Amino acid sequence: MQEWLLVAHVDHVDPEVEDDWNRWYDEVHVPDMLRCPGWRSADRYVYDGDEGRRYISVYDVSGPEALQSDEFEAARGWGPFTGRVQHVTRLYRKV
Prior knowledge:
Layout: E1 4-13, H1 18-34, E2 39-49, E3 52-61, H2 70-75, E4 85-93
Antiparallel strand pairs: 1-3, 1-4, 2-3
């Protein structure tokens, strides 16, 4: 049963890098995150609205400790797309 979810809300990706960003996210970033201790699974979703595309990634994690490993510190962030993505990340606990 999922007790903790980390949700990354991406409200904007620069259009000129969006395809490359999606490929990097699926092929590099998600696998890197899932190699971190306490990271169990990931699902990605896209919203196509009048304001443009918005993305969310939902990760099943073991809890706050999943955000405290050396592996997480090395894998977190937007890699080559730093500064080209607007996002908010939150850790949610089941109530």
